Amino acid sequence: MIYSRKNRVSLLVGAMLAAQTDALHAQMAPEVLETLIVSGERSASSELSQQVLIKTADDFAVGARLDPAELLQIIPGVQVDSRTNYAQDTRISLRGFGARSAFGVRGIDLQVDGIPMSTPDGQGQLASVMLDNIASVQVLRGPIAALYGNGAGGVVALQTAVPEASNISAGLIAGDPGLTRQTLNGEWRSEDLAMRAQFANTDIDGERPHSSAERQQAGVQLFYTTENNFDVIVKHDYSDDPLLQDPLGLTPEQWRDDPWQANSAAETYDTRKTIEHQQTSISLRDNTGETRWQTGLWQGERAITQYLGFAGDAISGSGGVIDLQRDFSGINGTITRSLSFFSWPAEISLGAELAQMQDDRRGYVNDFGIAGDLRRDETGEVKSRDIYSLIHINP
Question: What are the boundaries of each domain within the chain?
Fold first, then answer.
């Protein structure tokens, strides 16, 4: 048989392509992985992710007790974003609720000793709460949050420690960035009656220019256990923030260049905030036996003046200076009964809450750090009436 040169070249090219194809198939051949065998069994419902999480003082992070993040950052499902800016409250997010809040806490009901720190419009904050004597934090997620009323995102409930002995203590904390905090705490205990008076003064220079803060807090608390074994807590809390400078934010480019740099608008408009908050409350509760109940009554005032980072002098604008006077009050009550449902343990809870607030709000032009012409003058009222029930069965 006679082969032409053209045929020989074709055979050679075909052989080369076949060899390359075989090599490519060898490279693409799947690797044999080690076989892993995973076996498991159904967990008991009591071992699943709990709807109620409780952390005590022993679990809290060591700190100056200036930020709720020191108490909440250890709790699964709770995200706490400290803004390192005392003119903006710490953002608390529970299962995504509250993540988009520009200021304060929204969608989450905040409680201290059964008394709401959230206003009827759904906004709350913990900046005015002295955190030094918090004994435990309880987080309720899912339907069980109905035990505290209308908290769609859940409930964060703080519990104050009851004095165990009579004593007086003082403390001093100093650190970066220019932080000094002095505390004075006096406690008295006699059988079923206990009292506490506390005071704290905080000054901080801040990590960025125009971010210093001053805060004074005081509180008086009375704890009494009656012969019928229910607890009475009477409290009056006062918080005064005469100066909370706002350094404002940075663009991504500015932050990458220098995250500690100043925002020129903060100096131009002298952005800052002052807050004066006081609240009086009384709560009664009985957590023993098959029938447990709690009721609370509160009244308070809150005054805020804030200078924003713009003039707000447009005809349709509300001004760059906020002047807010807020009065709020309310009453609530809950009763829970333990029972059995076809031999399964169960609980039924009934509750109600009535709360109201009135805002007297004014807005002024921010004339380079000075309140100018009036741009807004309004009064707003919010009333909240809640009736709720919950049946919890644990099969």
Answer: 50-393
The residue whose two tokens read 């002047």 is 323
DSSP state of 68: T
The SS3 of residue 355 is: strand
Q: Is 285 helix (H, G, I), strand (E, B) or coil?
A: strand
Distances (CA, A) of 49 to 44, 218, 316: 11, 38, 50
3-state secondary structure of 326: strand
CB 218 within 8 A of CB 196: no
> CA-CA distance, 359 to 339, in Å (whole number)?
44
Please give the pLDDT value at position 329. Answer: 95
Residues 6 or more apart in contact with residue 13 via CB below 8 angstroms: none
Sorted by sequence, the CB contacts under 8 Å of residue 152 that are 6+ apart come out as 97, 107, 145
**Between the CA atoms of 102, 107, 111 and 117, what dihedral angle is there, to the nearest 10 degrees?**
50
Identify the pLDDT of residue 24.
47
CA–CA dist 56, 133 (Å, integer): 11
Q: Is 90 exceeded by the pLDDT of residue 244?
A: yes
What is the per-residue pLDDT across 75-95, written as a single tens digit (0 to 9) for each? 777 888 777 788 887 888 887
Three-state SS sequence of 294-329: EEEEEEEEEEEEEECCCCCCCCCCCCCEEEEEEEEE
Q: Which residue has the tokens 């309004």?
A: 378
DSSP 235: E
Residues 148-173 pLDDT 10s? 666 667 888 888 999 999 999 999 98
The predicted pLDDT at position 11 comes to: 42
Identify the bridge partners of residue 186 per DSSP, sorted by sequence position.
Answer: 168, 197
User: H helices within 197-341, ranges in order?
Assistant: 252-257, 264-268
> pLDDT tens-digit profile of 318-375?
999 999 999 999 999 999 998 888 888 888 989 899 999 999 999 999 999 999 999 9
